[in-house]
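hi support,

uploading two proteins for the ticket. first:
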Amino acid sequence: MEELKAWSFLVSSSQNLEFTTIVAPDFICDAQIPDLLKKAVAKYRYPTDSGQAVYIEIPYRELGNIVLVFRTSWASTKYIGREEDEILKDPQRPIPFIEGMVLKESIRDEVVAAINFEQIHEQLVKHYKDFWELTTIMPATPSKSFNLLKDSEPSRNLILKRETPLTIAQSGIQSRSKSWQCLHTILDTSSQSVGVCSVAFSPDGKQIAIRYYDQTVRIWSRDKEKLDTVWSSWTPKHSVSSVAFSPDGQFIASGMVNLWRSNVIKMRNLRTDKDEEFSSNEQGEISTVVFAFHPSDGKFIVSGSHDKTIKLWVISTRQIQHTFPGGLDRVNSIAISPDIKILVSGDEKGIINLWDFEKGSKIMTIEAHKKAVNSVVFSPKCKIFASSSEDGKINIWDRGTGEKVGSIEVHCPVNSITFSPDSSILASSNSNKGITIWNVETEQQICTLDEHEEKVTSVAFSPDGRLLVSGSKDGTVKVWCRT
């Protein structure tokens, strides 16, 4: 083997953090794309065969062709300074430990000396020991180049298992910093639920409510990293509904189908653990619920239904105060402006309606999309709202005039959208298994997060904007951290 320069890298998980790039070559860190490595090795999460190393070439526009040579093993307790040598778990699954090297030119031989991996392992383990205790994702540690070593004993060479070259630009890796990384994956191992249809942060950001397709609702506490059941599945019937916290964090609500096959709103008082049920013998499933705490008129739940109506419920009496005719078809999503003056609804025919919340009268109707409107949301600090649709578009609207002031092409159905608290960015959950982060002002894509295995159904920002939670039909909920 001729003399070649290489840089070490390490990708693994810890007791707190998901699959992350821990060490990356200095030139990759400088380009702000350390997640290129995580993406490239993501599927190699089981130990490499003895005597082998994986070899992948990556044609990358900004860096030129780069080569990865790596091995996977299970992370060991020895790596974090313990005397025993046992496999680390998180908490049940073994943790993959992917260590390797990056080169800027191809290796012509079919082998590489094992001594090189012994050398980089010594460098990487100390960084993994520090990483193990972290609770917040930090930038990858840059590694410097070294010369690949040869070994006089051919028996100590590793056979290179050459894989098909990767085109990272087509795999969702974005240049100029991904800026979000997965902090936690919440998997409900106690249920055979068929996926997550809605997620929501509590107003204090300490809890996440999760609504499953089988009508189970659970709350995940961030401090305890524990799932608690609010409601278990009532009937074998699957239904889709949003889940919502009240503005004061006292209540949680979701649409349900009860044992008598009636469509109801289930609400729990989280301070007393007392449940309430709101029922009007509706014919259609309740697809969406939101709380509206008006400073003078009182506390309400607003529901949108497949019976093409929107209902305003008084929490104290559980009675309907007003029924809005929803539009041309079943109502998929509703949102209330931050000042509690306007209600917006999106329906199955692509129509958006704006309502005067206090008067209960319609303000205007907008033919917004060519297909179903899946989500509507108000910007917290701007006079705009956004809608997303099965037509693969996110449209941005002036709430006063109803004029379209922006449009984003996603090129696949968009299931859910959410604004950051400062209104500067918007996140969308897509049917192509991805989440996209957008700059609202420029309408440009910032990054794509694509670690779910099935379509992403729901996204929500934490109240401080530092975290993003996503729910997927794959049954997992992921908590993403802005880095």
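and the second one:
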Amino acid sequence: MRKRHLVGALVAAVAVPVATALPAYSHGYVTGPPSRAALCAAGTVTNCGDIQWEPQSVEGPKGFPNSGPADGKLCAGGNSRFAQLDNPRNGAWPTTKVTAGSRQNFTWKFTARHATSSYRYYLTKSGYNAATALSRSNLNLTPLLTVPGNNQQPPSTLTHSVPLPAGLTGHHVLLAVWDVADTTNAFYSCVDLQF
């Protein structure tokens, strides 16, 4: 009996330092206006798969637009577990009404904060067909806004005021990218907007 307690104590003593030595991973997503991941988590959109429980986990390789997730897989960050986010649902994702030529606040929620390189916001071009999966050819690859992260951890929520271009009408998709500073990954959020 004493031997069993000794072994148990030894296992616990080894497990605690190993568990605390593992790196902390960052997680975050756009909650306002609600991203596709946020809509799934809230139950507003159904048949979302795992993303409904992990809206903060849309993590993929950074380097967008020169590298990063493949075309057609941008909204899921190239992560096949969250492929439902790339399904355009025939243009039926719920949209948030916005006004062209104005500014719109976008709010990130961070469940695990991490040092940040930058936040970048991209928008689909005029004439975008919301019934198609998002690709680089659909997007204006010059960001609407780039916010440096200065290698700082963000607070639990963070809002950026993003300028929206004039002259747009219809359903567009905004791709928000959060580049973390000390990993090879970024987090991706797609937000459906109605101009």
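thanks. also noticed: The helical segments are 2-21, 36-41.
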